[in-house]
């Protein structure tokens, strides 16, 4: 038995309404999202869903998704941008070519438009939207917001780095807690496209590294986790707007001669892996 389009839309709407109890100030939208199969459904919904904020239910037969979201926390643009970053073109945003190419072969739907390799691009046919280029003043608030968002990560990170230089386990734990707390309320939607792409790929790894570091009970364990944290945070910092110069530095001695990097707010080397034992061991390998 074939279902009419009206029946399918009604079913999606009823299913979406079951999320209202979990999502406050809920609004409902129906949007078109490209895709092919059950795996696409899983990918799209995983990218769009966010606890207590947004729920996406996508239908592979109609290509339509029912989105329920808390209007005080997010909007359709933010949800559809996340979905585009996972590889799926939709009525507002085109997926980066890199994200589309990473999809399983069965999920690679036929594309009618393409974006560039790294950024989410606005779709050409967006209802009620203009395709004219944004004025320079339009971009300025987003850039300031992005720098502020990055500062919320870098400021406690620098405190953590300095605590490790001083071999102060207690202060390192406090800085890790501050960083962890900031990550919990971090607004990734304030980020520019390239940084948001990195956040989508690395945000989970960053959160996990901070949580593990926070749980570390010794200076040695804190330094080990700091190395992993620095590796992930570097990718994020490099991709986006910064409010000041950041130095990417390297110690060749740490980790049995394998070496380790860290980020610093100053050019002078103060080694967080050895502290006073080898304070000046290392060098700046990149200025961000």
UniProtKB/TrEMBL annotation:
Alphabetical list of SUPFAM superfamilies matching this protein: HMA, heavy metal-associated domain (SSF55008)
UniProt lineage: Bacteria, Pseudomonadati, Bacteroidota, Sphingobacteriia, Sphingobacteriales
GO molecular function annotation: metal ion binding
Domain DUF3347 residues, every copy: 156-242
Pfam families xref list: DUF3347 (PF11827)
Keywords: Signal
Signal peptide start-end: 1-21
InterPro entries named among the record's database cross-references: DUF3347, HMA_dom_sf
Keyword Signal on entry: yes
Protein name as it appears in the record: Copper chaperone CopZ
């Amino acid at each position: 038995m074939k279902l009419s389009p009206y029946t399918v839309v009604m079913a999606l709407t009823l299913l979406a309404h079951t999320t209202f109890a979990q999502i406050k100030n809920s609004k409902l939208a129906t949007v078109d999202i490209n895709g092919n199969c059950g795996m696409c459904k899983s990918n799209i919904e995983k990218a769009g869903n966010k606890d207590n904020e947004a729920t996406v239910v996508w239908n592979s037969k109609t290509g339509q998704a029912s989105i329920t979201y808390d209007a005080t926390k997010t909007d359709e643009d933010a949800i559809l941008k996340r979905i585009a970053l996972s590889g799926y073109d939709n009525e507002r945003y085109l997926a980066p070519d890199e994200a589309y190419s990473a999809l399983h072969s069965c999920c690679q739907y036929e594309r009618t438009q393409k974006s560039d390799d790294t950024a989410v691009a606005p779709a050409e046919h967006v209802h009620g939207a203009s395709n004219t280029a944004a004025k320079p003043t339009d971009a300025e608030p987003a850039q300031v917001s992005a720098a502020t968002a990055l500062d919320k990560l870098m400021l406690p990170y620098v405190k953590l780095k300095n605590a490790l230089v001083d071999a102060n386990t207690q202060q390192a734990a406090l800085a890790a807690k501050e960083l962890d707390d900031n990550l919990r309320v971090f607004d990734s939607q304030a980020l520019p496209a390239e940084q948001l792409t990195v956040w989508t790929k690395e945000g989970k790894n960053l959160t996990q590294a901070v949580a593990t570091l926070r749980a570390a009970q010794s200076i040695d364990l804190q330094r080990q986790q700091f190395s992993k944290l620095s590796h992930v945070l570097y990718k994020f910092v490099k991709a986006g707007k910064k409010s000041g110069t950041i130095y990417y530095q390297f110690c060749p001695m740490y980790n049995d001669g394998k070496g380790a990097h860290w980020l610093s707010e100053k050019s002078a080397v103060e080694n967080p892996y050895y502290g006073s034992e080898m304070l000046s061991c290392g060098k700046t390998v990149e200025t961000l």
